[in-house]
Design goal:
Layout (H helix, E strand, L loop, with lengths): L1 H10 L1 H16 L7 H20 L5 E4 L4 E4 L3 H26 L6 H22 L3 E5 L2 E5 L3 E6 L10 E4 L3 E4 L8 E4 L6 E3 L5 H13 L10 H11 L7
Antiparallel strand pairs: 1-2, 2-3, 3-4, 4-5, 5-8, 6-7, 7-9
Length: about 240
C-alpha cells in the first residue's frame, strides 16, 4: 500500500507538489483555533519521510538521452520533504496575510516561520530539480553532488571480482584496482562508499558488476531496452524489508 503511494508520488511529482500547495492555501485560511489541521499534516509528512527512507528502495533506472546514461530514481524522501516545506511556507504566509487583512498584527511568528520555510523550499527544490546523484554512463560511474563531482571509469574495476557491494540501505561499497583513474572536480573527497538513497543497492551492485566485467554491454547504457533487460535480469527480492 505505502509502496504504491511512494511509486505514484515519484511518477507524478508535479501533481503531488500542486496538492501540497492547494492544501497549504486552504489551511492558511482557517481560523487559528482550527489550525490543528496544520500540525496533523506536518506530522503525517514527517512520518512519510521516515517510512519512505526506510522501506522504499525500488530496483529501477531512469533513461537519460543527453548525455546518454542511466540516472538513479529520484528519492521520494526529497519530494516529501519539499512538499512539507511548501506546505509550511504557504500556510504560514497565507495566515499572516489573512491576519493583516483582518487588522490582526500579531502574526509575526507566522511571517518568520513562512520566510524560513521558503528558504528551505528553495534548497529542497534544488535537490529535486537539479540533475544530481549517481549516474551510470557508457564510460563509467559519475556521482554529481552540490560541491563537486566524482567519476569512476569502468577500467578502474579491472581485475576486481566484486566492484560494488551493498552497504546498508543507502550506500554502495566500491572496490577499485586503479584508484588513480578516479577523477574529481570541485570540493570532493574520494571514498569507497557511494550514496544511493532511495534505490535498491543490491540491484545496483549487480548492474555495476555486469558492466565492469562485460565491456561489450556498456554502449547500450542509456537505452530503454537495456534498462528493461537489467531490471528483468537483476531486480530480485527487495533489499530492504
Amino acid at each position: 500500500m505505502l509502496n504504491k503511494l511512494f511509486t505514484q508520488v515519484g511518477r507524478h511529482p508535479t501533481s503531488f507538489l500542486l496538492v501540497c500547495l492547494a492544501l497549504a492555501t486552504a489551511v492558511g485560511l482557517l481560523d487559528r483555533e482550527d489550525r490543528i489541521v496544520s500540525s496533523v499534516v506536518l506530522v503525517a509528512v514527517v512520518g512519510l519521510v521516515i517510512l519512505a527512507d526506510y522501506r522504499f528502495h525500488p530496483a529501477n533506472l531512469t533513461v537519460r538521452d543527453e548525455p546518454r546514461a542511466f540516472d538513479l530514481t529520484n528519492h521520494v524522501v526529497n519530494l516529501f520533504s519539499l512538499g512539507g516545506c511548501i506546505f509550511l511556507a504557504i500556510s504560514q504566509l497565507v495566515e499572516f496575510g489573512v491576519g493583516i487583512a483582518r487588522g490582526d498584527e500579531s502574526g509575526s511568528v507566522a511571517l518568520v516561520v513562512g520566510l524560513v520555510a521558503i528558504g528551505a523550499t528553495a534548497v529542497g527544490g534544488v535537490q529535486v530539480l537539479r540533475p544530481a546523484g549517481v549516474r551510470l554512463r557508457p564510460d563509467g560511474i559519475e556521482d554529481v553532488r552540490t560541491f563537486g563531482t566524482l567519476f569512476v571509469p569502468w577500467e578502474a574495476f579491472a581485475g576486481v571480482d566484486y566492484p560494488a557491494v551493498a552497504y546498508g540501505r543507502n550506500r554502495l561499497l566500491l572496490t577499485c584496482s586503479a584508484p588513480g583513474a578516479v577523477r574529481k572536480t570541485g570540493w570532493r573527497v574520494y571514498g569507497p562508499l557511494l550514496p544511493v538513497p532511495g534505490n535498491d543497492p543490491v540491484f545496483l551492485s549487480r548492474v555495476i558488476h555486469e558492466y565492469a566485467h562485460r565491456p561489450e554491454l556498456r554502449p547500450a547504457i542509456g537505452a530503454a531496452a537495456e534498462r528493461d533487460r537489467l531490471i528483468a535480469a537483476w531486480a530480485g527480492p527487495p533489499a530492504v524489508p
